[in-house]
Design goal:
- By secondary structure, this protein is α+β, with helices and mostly antiparallel strands.
- It contains eight helices and ten strands.
- The radius of gyration is 23 Å and the shape is elongated.
- The C terminus is likely disordered.
Amino acid sequence: MSAEELARLYAAQEPASAPAYQRVKDLVAGQIAGGSWREGQALPSESQFVESLGLSRMTVNRALRELSAEGLLRRVMGVGTFVGRRKSSSALVEVHDIADEIRGRGHQHTARVLSLREELPDPETGAQLGLDGRRSAYRSRVVHLEDGKPVQLEDRFVHPDFAPGYLRQDFTARTPYAFLSEVAPLGRGEHIVEAVLPSAEECEILRVGPSEPCLLIRRRTWSGEAVVSVTRLIHPGSRYRLEGTFDAH
């Protein structure tokens, strides 16, 4: 981008009375949102911003630093500033196949099965599934990856009456959600969302540090009037977000 084009875009930012650093932020964010600057693309250097816009280095540095803290940019010392990787996202009030979500963003979904077996659930999970304390459920633990990076650890208990053949499935080829959608079509779902710190095992699986906040979604799904699955989903907070819309009327 030429110095003249950069200056023109800066001058077009509204309101003109906004602080200079905010107008720089708006310029950069607008170029990214509009697709002019794409994921991984290098931005003009701080010096180019300073010279083109006639601003102080402190002002430009603040704008780029704040955008980096917000995850929109990625700064590499001695190399430059780049458009950051967009966080994966999932609809807050809907239930979707994570593989479809990842492919819909133009990325590659892969999965790794940690375990797939029949076992006795804890009393709370068993009660949610409508099982008495002596009856086992099917349990799968699967890590979902987006372009090779773990974005979700799925720990799912399934009522055996509604999912014959569950333990024989290859969940690296299709997700548990996809299989259950065929044998026990989703009627409704329930989400409970929390912010948690990962356990030592979860840190290793998700490749995060022990102090990185994660999003925990506790999900129940029904087919007809019966609870089919009870699932615990953990996402690294730095790589995932939940989003949704609502009508106030």
